[in-house]
Amino acid sequence: KYLLLKVIFDLSDVDVVERSRYDMSFKFFLDMAPEEEVIHSSSLTKFRKLRLKDMNLLDLLIKTSVETAQNQGVLNGSTLIVDATHSQSRYNAYLPKEILQKRSNQIVDAAGKIDDTKIKPLKLNDCSTKEALDLSKSFLDDLLKEEKYLSIPSVKEKINYFKETIEDCESTYTVSVDEDARVGHKSEDKSFFGYKSHLAMNTDRIITAAVVTTGEKSDGCYLSQLIEKSRENGVEVDTVIGDTAYSSRDNLDYCFNDNIELVSKLHPHIVHGVRKENQAFEYNKDAGMFVCPAGQLAVRKAR
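The line above is the sequence of Transposase; the predicted structure tokens follow.
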């Protein structure tokens, strides 16, 4: 929950913890009493950088949320909606100098709203990563000497976020590739580098199962797995709604055998069929033409 607040409000670890001390909306979201003490910011930093490596953590969190929804009486119906979302790899999101440039510009913008004093922005476009880090540290040192900026919360938050970004870049900028990510396709002419999250949710928009794969995997291959995981989490399933990707022959057979109604537009291969190996055209070398399975020679050569 702390990490979610951090992402939503663009705060550093220090500031998200500090704001949680006095902001009642944060306290409410964190399910804390007004007088309850918050965690130390270093604990959040450690969790954010190390994370948990348990492969079953996602399933455990979803199962807990489903159980909570059932106990509160908000999980109704036996219809699942299935789909897949795309997640970009961290590798091609931002280069270190690009994210440092972005964070420094946020400081300049925040300070410009307070008075007419213009902070000279950083120019990191033509720098190497090491040069960008050195310039960013120098820029940060100059800012920390200006008491008027440190006394303004909106500017101080951006400065702390910039400081945290420098520390993150120092520890991770040597990582040059995400070995697990793969190239997937959103459309015929649009690709992405990252992962796919295959999700199942009920009509109340509560996620009941999830499977994370590399980006090149097909959406429809994980329908049975999503249904089984949803059932393991205590969800009854008698209807599944999905797009054309889920109307493969294997999925149709699985749902038929399991007495599940699959609502999905049929793929043209299902409607019109595809040629089997023994029905394929053969090339007649002597005639220089193709022969159909019935033995008829092609009428002409296409140019």
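Note on the example: The chain is about 45% helix and 15% strand. The two ends are 63 Å apart (CA to CA).
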